[in-house]
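Exam revision sheet. Question 4 asks you to relate a sequence to its structure. Input first:
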Amino acid sequence: MSLISLFDRGASLGRDRIAYTMDGKNWTFGAAQDQTYRVAQALAKSGLGTETKCAVLADNDPAAWLCVLAIWRAGQVWVPLNPRAPLADHVFLIDGFDVEVLFFKAMFAPLIADIRAKSPRLKTLICIDGDVPGAVSLADFVADMQAQPLTRGPAEEDLAAIMPTGGTTGAPKGVMVSHRNLIVSAMNGIINTPYLPGEEIVNLAAAPMTHTAGFLSLPATARGGRVVVMTKPDPSLLLDIVEREGVTEFFLPPTVIYRLLDTPGVRERNFSRLRFIMYGAAPMSVEKLREALQVFGPVMHQGYGQTECPGAIAFLRPGDHFRNGSIAEEARLKSCGLPSITNETSIQDDDGKILAQGETGEICVRGDIVMMGYYKNPEKTAETIIDGWLHTGDIGHIDAEGYLHITDRKKDMIISGGFNVYPSELEQVIWSHPAVMDCAVIGVPHPDWGEAVKAVVELKPGHSVEAAELQAMCKERLGSVKTPKTVDFVESLPRSPVGKVLKKDLRDLYRKRQTEVA
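Answer key, structure tokens:
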């Protein structure tokens, strides 16, 4: 079994069923499957070896996602590129991960020219939707190919993708994941988003399919569901599509959910078909989570994972957000849910000793979900996977009911005057202020304390609050030691393509400013 088996299973439920919808255009399972057959045949006959690294650079478009499916069908390796990333990021990934084949849409032709000049490893350029000098058109690439399966497909243990890490604590690393890793991840999605027999599944792909949303749509596709593709990020448009298309599920990072909640008229919308709003990739404000439960209903569904263990460490399912018919207490809402049944999860100390329930240490995971390792980086792999346990770098504990709680990232912890300060505690307090859209708490160098606590705050449009008011809130709830010494207001926080706040960039910025002043 390989990843493409998930798509083929959906197609087996009816080739005339609609697989993808975008801007009023539909792709049936049969038409989509045939296209993946043709592209895979062309890749197999192009002289490229198995496990050749291939990337796709496109805006949100099912035609581009079908190229990713064809890459897997041909037994080759997908390297995700985010269409919103700058040239330097694309070159870094293409060179660092040895990409030889690049599918792209014509709108990126100027960028492709720059990539080609800086990436000598690229051998084959394929334009998905037109003719571009120096590239073959996809239509010509598959012109003589038959819509037939290959004689041999990839095995479960074969490399399926090299996924770049988020880069929130340093330069992205290449996470090697097998077909088995990603199948288990998709099965976690199926297990934790249950539908009744015969119930229609409509997944909304709001993020780029060739970066994250495509893979997240596979649990729906495997069950014969329809994927509705958004072509541009717009909260009002998203709400329109949810109502018009009868969307039953979608994924968004917390920062985008905050914007949905702030969209005029959101409380008058019809969410009767909605079953799951999946959120993750970053911590979520408890106050805003409560608001989301009131606005959207009992549909919030958190998934906690990381690139090295994709999307499957723990789940806070819709029912877990409630206790005795009411929205659950803060401690439950701050948790990331129950550990997945498909892997083992433990809390370990710095010596690798497994700690008792309730004790705080590093969250560690093992099982078929854990990555194969970091691409061309055996030293970092050995540091991260020890005796089969993936060391996540997250600090947390498991409570008496079995729910997993994250205190913070190891690298984000601030040591100020000898005291450990976990930024997530402060961020929850600051998020609770009605004027705050988002925030990040970091440590900045201080001559006496080693590090001083700083809060960097992004306000809602048209709102204001004084720094002293936020500091007073933090002092009242967490004490003076953890209270930010300074609060800065910014128009927007730096974020990764999947919505994570880049605290490393913030720390680097403030260290640079201090150096310049000195």
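Marking note for examiners. The two ends are 60 Å apart (CA to CA).
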